[in-house]
């Protein structure tokens, strides 16, 4: 059974964190595990609660960050290190940006001490919520667990529980009763239900759960009709991991982090994955990008260019060469050059090259994924069958962040995503695990 990895963000004493830890111990939370607590203050007692429970405890002090963007970048880095799948805001006293929330769309929850939509939104936190309820003279208050989105306290409601306001209540007594009778009950219940559905919530794009798909290309069309492409690389060896993607005009290139490093065959790991020729974008996993570009420039075709090339000469894997071509209207082609399965996969006699070409008309909201290796192994088995169908969103950040998060965290190296518009214009995103995100 899948056990979802839960990270909890806190700012103070951590009473809601303790409720989650207790619920995990008692079996209320059984489909997930709290693996990390991140505090925005170094003196937050929640950190001690985490340590006592044997949970990783990190600090990203808000006051030590130059701005909110740096604060969020540091938190995201820690969440990625721990491969967090669900994020719980439990007394976290900071409003997170829309860009941050996108990374955990549908998988980030918050507990708020009122019955939303009453006494919520910017400025309503802690005792201020209970002071407002008492000032308004309401007879009932309570707590709400909701999904976090870009609007403070505005995401979909998961659970609510009412609590009576009693004569003589103060903000402090009301706060304690709301915690005991509502927050500490519904927060663990909501987290457990979210954990049970985590497989449906995690972005997939055809790669989640595959430890080593190798290098991959996704081409397709967004629901709004924009052509979309993605290219990613994985790495297990030091040489493969010591690389970054870098923009070069309308092209994408791969560079070594150590420019002085000597390579036996640099063409296998250093090349231009993306180039543009007459409004057509070429995407490949090797120096065949240049072969396609030069052939098309001379009046030839995508297919003619790739009939002059073969798979990579790296026995025993014989890594396939994968290539794609996409037009701004979303029509695209994919190709794979791989060792014939009837040949000798362990070397010896020269391998026959199997060339497969695929052509697709635009289909809004969908694309196709092709990658070099079917899965991890020794030797690595080549991709087989037709390129997989994947669903594409309209939001480039949703696509880019979702795909980056879905790639195996240990082996992923770099990702590039581009959405095309008519006239040669495009919007792009770039991720480097071992360099700066751009």
What does this structure look like?
The chain has 438 residues and is of the alpha+beta class. It folds into two domains: 4-201, Rossmann fold, CATH 3.40.50.170; 216-432, 4-Layer Sandwich (Glutamine Phosphoribosylpyrophosphate, subunit 1, domain 1), CATH 3.60.20.20. The protein has helices spanning 15-26, 46-52, 68-81, 98-102, 127-136, 171-196, 198-201, 238-241, 288-297, 302-306, 396-406; strands at residues 4-10, 32-39, 56-59, 86-89, 108-112, 140-147, 157-164, 216-221, 227-234, 243-248, 251-256, 274-277, 280-284, 321-326, 332-339, 353-360, 366-371, 388-391, 412-420, 426-432. A seven-stranded mixed beta sheet has the order 3-2-1-4-5-6-7, with helices on both faces. The longest helix has 26 residues, at 171-196. The chain is elongated. Residues 345-349 have low confidence and may be disordered.
């Amino acid at each position: 059974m899948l056990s979802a990895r839960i990270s909890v963000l806190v700012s103070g004493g951590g009473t809601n964190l303790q409720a989650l830890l207790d619920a995990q111990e008692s079996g209320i939370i059984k489909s997930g595990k709290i693996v990390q607590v991140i505090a925005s203050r170094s003196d937050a007692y929640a950190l001690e609660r985490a340590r006592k429970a044997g949970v990783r405890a990190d600090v990203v002090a808000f006051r030590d960050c130059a701005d909110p963007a740096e604060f969020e970048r540091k938190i995201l880095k820690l969440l990625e290190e721990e491969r967090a799948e669900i994020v719980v805001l439990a007394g976290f006293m900071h409003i997170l940006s829309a860009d941050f929330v996108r990374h955990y769309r549908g998988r980030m929850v918050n507990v708020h001490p009122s019955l939303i939509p009453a006494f919520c939104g910017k400025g309503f936190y802690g005792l201020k919520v209970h002071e407002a309820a008492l000032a308004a003279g309401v007879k009932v208050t309570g707590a709400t667990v909701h999904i976090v989105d870009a609007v403070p306290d505005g995401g979909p409601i998961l659970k609510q529980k009412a609590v009576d306001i009693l004569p003589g209540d103060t903000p402090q007594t009301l706060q304690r009763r709301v915690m005991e009778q509502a927050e500490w009950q519904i927060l663990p219940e909501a987290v457990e239900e979210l954990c049970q559905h985590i497989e449906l919530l995690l972005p997939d794009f055809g790669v989640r759960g595959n430890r080593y798909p190798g290098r991959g290309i996704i081409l397709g069309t967004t629901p709004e009709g924009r052509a979309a492409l993605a290219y990613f690389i994985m790495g297990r060896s030091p040489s493969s991991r010591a690389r970054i993607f870098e923009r070069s005009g309308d092209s994408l290139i791969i560079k070594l982090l150590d420019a002085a490093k000597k390579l036996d065959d640099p063409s296998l790991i250093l090349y231009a994955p993306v180039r543009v020729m007459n409004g057509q974008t070429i995407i490949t996993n090797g120096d065949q990008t240049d072969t396609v570009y030069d052939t098309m420039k001379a009046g030839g075709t995508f297919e003619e260019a790739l009939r002059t090339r073969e798979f990579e000469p790296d026995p025993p894997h014989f890594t396939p060469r994968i290539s794609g071509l996409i037009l701004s209207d979303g029509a695209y082609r994919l190709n794979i050059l791989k060792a014939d399965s009837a040949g000798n996969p362990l070397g010896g006699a020269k391998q026959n090259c199997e060339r497969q070409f695929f052509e697709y008309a635009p289909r809004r909201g969908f694309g196709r994924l092709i990658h070099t290796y079917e899965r991890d192994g020794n030797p690595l088995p080549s991709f087989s069958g037709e390129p997989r169908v994947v669903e594409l969103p309209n939001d480039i950040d949703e696509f880019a962040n979702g795909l980056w998060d879905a790639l195996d965290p240990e082996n992923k190296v770099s990702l590039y995503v581009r959405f095309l518009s008519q006239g040669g214009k495009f919007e792009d995103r770039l991720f480097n695990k071992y360099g700066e995100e751009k």
